UniProtKB/TrEMBL annotation, chains A, B:
It comes from Undibacterium cyanobacteriorum. A zinc finger (C4-type) spans 57-72. Signal peptide: none annotated. This is Recombination protein RecR. Keywords: DNA damage, DNA recombination, DNA repair, Metal-binding, Zinc, Zinc-finger. Residues 80-175 form the Toprim domain. May play a role in DNA repair. It seems to be involved in an RecBC-independent recombinational process of DNA repair. It may act with RecF and RecO. Belongs to the RecR family.
Length: 198, 198
């Protein structure tokens, strides 16, 4: 079998990116070679550098270049409350609300038995060690509200409640600014069941 | 201003890829770091290696690792006819029809005055030198059948006819507005057979 050319290897490598098929990978490779060789250099260096530099935060499990990430190292955060999210992006969304001052644990995924993603893949042991450090009092489960996120929240919640921790879940309901006409019936049903007295 | 972290640099680098926005770039970076570090390594190495190895064919202008590409070096091709295409993908589509035995010239783009892409950006001087080598008798213009491709074909056609060359254009079996990369080989084959002198 003929060895792959440098160009073929470049296209194969780009196909490893999620959501990139053979046509896109080919288009990307041609674009970089023809119009943005500097970008290709930047991409190559950034990949190799990131692999060397980036590890998981020893405390919250997010990506960081240090033993502990900036958020975990921030002495002004409330250490008694731990918010469990699926990804760094979800953590960022919560940070942007400016309403949460506790710490985080980033699962880097969600339980998905059909895809072979079990408790060890979402760092459950690390989460248990973190949550039972004697300082954390409450866990806020902020996984997504789809099937897998709900199942993940349920599994983690039961596990941590068995360790004597207080566990809560983000409230569900009609989005702020949401018009009932455009909200799905499942959300409205949940909002009715979870109604709060005013 | 704070220096970009390795992760931010990785995301910035992925955004240089055509069609990749901030959300996709972030998702790609997390995926590679979390689930495919080997893929990230492959991508990094493939980029840097490609930049070192890949140059333009001295004859047809396509990407190659040698002074002259495999197609141009193939002694069985008909050297009297030269097919002008916009990209290596378009050349590949024509090759797949198995109906064309001549050689190619790859413009690596098309004229687009609004984007500042002029004759020098599509290697017109190199094409003229190639086409006037005394061996080439006919030029088949196989640029795309959209506005820019047609304008490019017209411009090149007039230039080469002024040099005394016979110039033809793929027949309009290709749908108007269609891009070669997305047309079935049968249609392209018919268009080659029906090519018309211009
Ligand atoms: Zn951390
Ligand atoms: Zn060539």
């Amino acid at each position: 079998m003929k060895e792959l050319s440098s160009l073929d290897q470049m296209i194969e490598a780009l196909r490893r990116l999620p959501g990139v098929g053979p046509k896109s990978a080919t288009r990307m490779a041609y674009h970089l070679l023809q119009h943005d060789r500097e970008g290709a250099q930047f991409l190559g260096n950034a990949m190799l550098n990131a692999l060397q530099q980036i590890r998981h935060c020893g405390s919250c499990n997010t990506f960081t270049e240090n033993a502990v990430c900036d958020t975990c190292a921030d002495a002004s955060r409330d250490t008694s409350i731990l918010c469990v999210v699926e990804s760094p992006s979800d953590q960022l969304m919560i940070e942007q609300t400016m309403t949460y001052k506790g710490l985080y644990f980033v699962l880097m995924g969600r339980l998905s038995p059909l895809d072979g993603i079990g408790p060890q893949d979402i760092y459950l042991d690390k989460l248990i060690r973190r949550a039972t450090d004697g300082v954390v009092e409450e866990i806020v489960l902020a996984t997504n509200f789809n099937n897998e996120g709900e199942a993940t929240a349920h599994y983690i919640g039961e596990t941590l409640k068995a360790k004597g921790l207080k566990v809560s879940r983000l409230a569900r309901g009609v989005p702020v600014g949401g018009e009932l006409e455009y909200v799905d019936p499942g959300t409205i049903a949940r909002a009715i069941l979870d109604r709060k007295s005013t």
